[in-house]
Amino acid sequence: MAELHDLTALEQSAAIRSGELSPVELTEHYLARIDRLDDTLGAFLTRTPEIARRQAAEAEREAAAARREGRALPPLHGVPVPVKDLNHVAGVRCTMGSRALAEHVPAVDDHVHGKLRAAGTILLGKTNTPEFGLPCYTENGLAPPARTPWDLARSAGGSSGGAAAAVAGGLAPVAHATDGGGSVRIPASACGLYGIKPSRGRISNGPVLHDITGLMTSGPLARTVADAAALLDVMAGAMPGDPYTAPSLPPGETFASYVLRDPGRLRIACLTGAPVPGVEVHPDCRTALADTAALLTGLGHEVEELSLPSDETIDEAFLHVWAVMAANRPVPPGGEELLMPLTRYLRDRGAQVSGMDFARSVYAFRALAQSIADGLMPPGTGYDVILSPTLASPPVPVGALRNDAALQVEIAALAAFTPFTGLSNMTGQPAVNVPLQWNAEGLPIGVMLAGRYGDEATLISLSARLEEARPWAGRKPSVW
Asked: How many CA atoms, within 13 angstroms, populate the side-chain half-sphere of residue 284?
C-alpha cells in the first residue's frame, strides 16, 4: 500500500487543495520518519517540529478557507520543504555546519525562505551541510555525516548532502539546497535525485550574505522534474540589493509549464573527458554518459562529442575565490580554533589573496562565460545543451575524500571527484543532474545537462522527456 511519502510533492499539494489530505497529517508523517531515520541518514542539523506543526495548522486553515471561497492556492501549499543550514530562518539556529556557530540564531529570514513561507510550505528543519558549505562531502563536528540512502556506508555528497539524504530517504518530498561549485548536483547524483542549479541571479542570496562572486545560488532537489520545476518557481525572483538578476520568463509563464513542452530538436555537445588535468572518469560514469547520449539520439537530438581543453588558470581562479569566500564567512571571537582543518586552511589562504588577484579571478569567470556564450553556445548556431558526467566516480565511502593531515591532497581529491560541476558556477549557466543510471552495485550515477545562461526552461523540457523515456522515481532505496 502506498504511503504519504510515496506521493510526489505536487501530488501531495493537489490532495491538500482538494481536501483529501491534511497538511497536519502530512507533516506528522514526515516528522515521524525523521525521528526514526535521521540519526542513520544524517539529514538534519536542526529539527523544527514545533514550527512545522504550527505552520501545518495554518496551512490547513488556509486550505479550508480557499476551498470555501473558491480561491486558488500556491502549487506547493502545505508541502514540507526543509531549508539548508547555510541559509537564515529568523529565530532558528543557523550553524552553517560549524561548531563556531552552534548557537547562532539569526533575526531575519533570507529572501529565499521568505518566498518559501509565502508559498505556504512547511519548515521541517535545517538540513546538514559541511562547514560553510566548502567541501563536496557532508561531514562536520555537529551531526552524523550525511549518507546516501542507496548505501549507508557511502557519502551523500555535498555540500547539500543533508537535503539530498532527506529527499532520497523519504524524510521530505523536496528540499531547498545551495550550489557554489556543484553542491546541488553532486548530492543529487550521489542520491539518485533530480537537482537544478539555476542561472546566476535567478534566486536571491540576500539580504545578508550576498555573493558578489556569482558562484553561489539556491536550487531545488526533488525526485521528479515536475517537483523541482515547481519549487524553482517558488524560490525564483530578484530582490532589492541583488548584485545579479537572471532574465525573467515571459509574462504568465512558469518553469513548471515547461515540463509538458517538447524542447524541439536540440544540438547537444557531449563532454567525455574531464576539464581538469590528470582526472580519469570512472567506467561507470563513462557508461552512463554513453547510454544517455544514445538515448538522446534516439529521441531525435543531434549529439556530438566535444573536448574542452584543461585550463589550470581557471582552476587557480576558482581556488582563489573559494578561499576568499571561506575567509569572508563570519566567525565570532574565539571561534577560529573550533573550525575544521580544511576551513582554517582555506581561510588562511584566502586572507593572502590580494585584491588584484581576486578581481582577476572574477574577471576570468566572466571571460569564460563570454567565450562559451559566443563560441560554443551562440543561439541559432551553437550547441543548445552540454552533456557530461556529473561526477567522475560513483558515490564514495564516508570519509574517503577528507584528509585533515594533508589538506592539499584533500583539495586535489575534491577536484578529481567533481571536475565537471564548477564550470557552470563560474559561467553562471543553469545545469541539472538527471538520475538516469544505476550501476551494478545499485548506486546512482548521474549525468549533467548545462544550458545557455537564463535558459532553465530548455533543460527542464529536455529532462522531462528523458524522465518519460526512462522513469526513475519508482526506484526506492531500502530505507524507503
From this structure: 19
